[in-house]
Amino acid sequence: MYNKLPRSFYERDPLIVSMELLGKLLVRKKKKGEVVGKIVETEAYIGPHDKASHAYGNKMTKRTLVQFGERGHTYIFKIYGIHHCFCVVVGPRYTPAVTLIRSVEPVKGVKLMKKNRGLNNNVSIIRLTNGPSKVCQAFEITKELNGIDLCGEDIFICEGAKFTFEVGKSKRIGIDYAEEYKDVLWRFYIKNNKFVSKKQKE
DNA sequence: CGACCGATCCTC
DNA sequence: AGGATCGGTCGT
How many CB atoms lie within 10 A of CB A7? Predict the structure, then answer.
């Protein structure tokens, strides 16, 4: 019933993949239910040269190891001791690069998303999944899923309904330390979509 | 082993 | 504008 993206989808130019992930569906399966969201905002982190990347200079550590592995696997890390971020390993094998999933538009399982986020069922859905850590909370994505295959069953990405949209591009968020890479337009979002996390200058 | 700090988010 | 909060990473 779901048309999962094949591994070959991820094994292409990281910027192309990051852009083309817009509009695709992120699906998370749990025994208690299914949560689905349309991807509306992504960012690319392209390892070896990108000073914003954890794998800058081909830095290979316990944390970054999965970035050097199979394309289409997850790269999940914790930040500020509190929040999780969810990325997909992308690009040509086996150079480190990821797409960060920054925001999704809730499609299915809204009630469960709210519960996972600890929110009252009658709150607005507009701020439910508009940010990388919110997506992780709503979709129950934790470090236990780090390095697993998105071509598997627990969590995967598939084709969404066909619709047209314009792709917006901007600087990435929260990486002011990245010197000449802080201004590259490697953030992609669906223009005029209400579920994109925040405005950012181009 | 200690120190530093962050691809965030919420509250003030 | 500031604080929460902790694991990865690196230097000693």
Answer: 15
d(CA A20, C1' B9) / Å = 27
Å: A163 CA to C5 C1' = 41
Per DSSP, A64 falls in state G
In whole angstroms, B7 C1' to A182 CA is: 11
Q: Is the pTM of this model over 0.85?
A: yes
8 A C-beta contact, residue A170 and residue A186 = no
Return the pLDDT at A164. 96
Dihedral sign from CA coordinates of A122, A29, A164, A22: positive
pLDDT the model gives residue A198:
79
Name the residue closest to B5, CA to C1'.
A80
The position carrying tokens 């930040």 is: A79
